[in-house]
Amino acid sequence: MEKILFELKPFLDTLVSSFSAVLNLEFTIINSKPISRISGTGVYESALNQKEWKNTYTDYVITTKERLIVIEPEKTYPKIIDKVSESYYSIILEPIKINDDVLGVLVIASFDEVQQKFLISNQDKLVKYLKNISELITSKILESKLRKEIFESNENLKEIINYVNEGILLFNKGTIVTNSIAESILCSNKVNIYNNLIVKIKQKIDESLEHRSDMESKIIEEYNDIYFMLFLELKFLGENKVLVLINTLEKIQTQNFSNSQQNNTFETIITQDEKMLDLKNKINTFSNNDSNVLIQGETGTGKELFARAVHDSSYRNKKPFVAINCASIPESLLESELFGYHSGAFTGASKTGKVGKIVLANNGTLFLDEIGDMPLYLQAKLLRVLNDSYVEPIGSEKPIKVNIRIISATNKNLTAMVENNEFRSDLFFRLNVIPMYIPPLRERKKDIQLLASYFIKKYNTKFNKNVRGIDIDTLEILDNYSWPGNVRELENTIEYAMNFKEKGNIFPEDLPKRISEDKTLRKNTFKAKNTYTYNNELTLKTNMNLYEKFVIQEQLDKYPKPLSNKNLMTLCNNFNISPATLYRKLK
Ligand SMILES: Nc1ncnc2c1ncn2[C@@H]1O[C@H](COP(=O)(O)OP(=O)(O)OP(=O)(O)O)[C@@H](O)[C@H]1O
């Protein structure tokens, strides 16, 4: 502390010379212990090496710790001998103090009559001026002291955190200290994204400081069209201190990152069916609760649309909605798609590794479509993620912490699959916290016309057409058709028809043959009270299979959906077949 003013010499030199130039008076700054001149202008500059300080004004101020104003030196303090010059006219001395310690003295002096006149007539102003400069120097000293302390404590911290076997950044009162592992992670890709990452990490630190809480977050940084993702765990340690743990910097492909939809899908669920409206209304009551949701329903009924609506209505809606279809990805790839892998985890693995969908969905929603097609060994792995909230990429020993909500969907009867040991019961219970069942379109006929009109509007805009609506005969066909592909099939049908129309109504002949020709079949079917009509174009065996399917479906339709276990067993007993055979025959 004693020599701290010397450390500020460049700053004090600038201060002294600039004030002297403006005010046309002489300035000097003297250190108190040891007493020695640090900086000075005019005669003071040539007296920088002054050795004798006894009986000087400076000595007097250091002793009394008070400001001194001397207008007529000889008369006021005859005993004080100042060695700098014989021609002192007037002088003002201001102590530089921290608490009660005098660190130095700030001096303004006049050495001729003109300067003295100026000093006397501006005495009050100059005193104020000196006081301000003294305070400025004091704050500068305190700041530099603080910086030094922080530097020292940061050096100590750095030594400590270097022992930790994890990437650590420690934010301590304005500075970030990193350990060597963090540095190697942040520079690992030898690309110039280090600075950008640090800026973004600092933003996350600010968030943690503002909320005074721990946080988990991820940073995506783009460089040369390649995306890098860094996962952070922030621990709020108290006032101005945050500890940041970082994991490996993952390289990801653009298309892998979130296929989330910005619009609120809630509004795009078109329905006037009571059951559907009830389902839609329920979304808002549970969407924020993080409970897993299992959506059951036939293909094309809108399961994904509902899943997105749950995500969009939840607080997770600013985070990714990541969808994966377990049936459309070969079993061998599903594991790496879901869990990701570490660089070089297996033969053929990309050198940079791959971020799995589970990790991509962190803090957001993971939509597992066709969950019934997930192989048993992956079901076990997924269950571990749900139980521990950690995911272990293939070939990595470092688990990554994740916070995801899972919405799964299936058109299979998972209850029956559980009973046949084709689906793990423990996973089923974890996924099926909130069950949702979407009825097929043929069970909500009211929606057919509404949806058809909605799709006409959509494709009028898309194709720039002016189709008015649906002819009454067409509507009858649409009403009577069984819609095995549900809403998706209806939308495709309208899209098909609109390709060939400019304006007016959609007539039966505008529909795909498969549907317009089904009219007679359906009508006859209804008249004949649900009988199967033999199809000459198909083989006997196919007709037999279809008839079997028809009979089973007819019985199945009599029970409420989703099918309860009890009803399933009754049905199977009646047919004298196992649930597995029943589902095989329905395929
Ligand atoms: N109620 C609805 N209102 C508007 N569009 C709908 C509705 N239901 C479904 N759709 C549309 O139908 C198509 C199929 O919906 P979606 O993909 O959500 O069905 P799904 O049940 O998940 O199908 P799959 O089981 O084959 O994956 C989508 O284009 C969707 O936007």
TrEMBL record:
Gene Ontology MF: a single term: ATP binding
Organism: Anaerosphaera aminiphila DSM 21120
Biological process, per Gene Ontology: regulation of DNA-templated transcription
Entry-linked PROSITE patterns: SIGMA54_INTERACT_1 (PS00675), SIGMA54_INTERACT_2 (PS00676), SIGMA54_INTERACT_3 (PS00688), SIGMA54_INTERACT_4 (PS50045)
A Pfam family matched in the record: Sigma54_activat
Domain Sigma-54 factor interaction: 269-499
Protein name per Swiss-Prot or TrEMBL: Transcriptional regulator containing PAS, AAA-type ATPase, and DNA-binding Fis domains
Keywords: ATP-binding, DNA-binding, Nucleotide-binding, Transcription, Transcription regulation
Gene3D superfamilies the record matches: 1.10.8.60, P-loop containing nucleotide triphosphate hydrolases
Domain of life: Bacteria
